[in-house]
Amino acid sequence: MKPAYVALAACLIFQPAFARSDTDRQVVTPDEAQLIEHGSYTNKDGKTVHRPAHTQSDRVPEGATAKCRDKTYSFSQHRRGTCSRHGGVMAWL
Predict the structure, then answer these.
(1) Of 71, 46, 51, nearest in space to 88 by CA
(2) pTM of the full predicted structure?
(3) In sequence order, which ranges of the chain are alpha helices (DSSP H)?
(4) How many folded domains does the chain comprise?
(5) Cα dihedral angle (27, 31, 35, 38), rounded to 10 degrees?
(6) What is residue 3's predicted lDDT score, i.e. its pLDDT?
(7) Which domain holds residue 93?
(8) Which end of the chain has fewer beta carbons closer than 10 Å to its terminal beta carbon, N or C?
(9) 89-92 sheet: strands from edge to edge
(10) Which residues pair with 53 in a beta bridge?
(11) How many helical (H) and strand (E) elements, i.e. helices and strands, does the chain have?
(12) Is 40 within a domain?
């Protein structure tokens, strides 16, 4: 097997989680008791997604995909626009 094919195969096998397409993500509903803010919106795929929220303990809530600069956790299913009204993305989860 040629080295280029081996490298390509390794990239495809060991791709990080963020390399998945947005449509591959499963929507996980966070535990509302752990969140300070509540509410949801319908994303461009027609899925209901929890709005960015602070947590009671500052622990990463289940289903969070990013931590925003204002310390809220985002549950966005698409990178574009994530944390746009929360100071931008501090870290992808």
Answers:
(1) 71
(2) 0.71
(3) 3-13
(4) 1
(5) 60
(6) 58
(7) 31-93
(8) N
(9) 73-74, 66-68, 89-92
(10) 73
(11) 1, 5
(12) yes
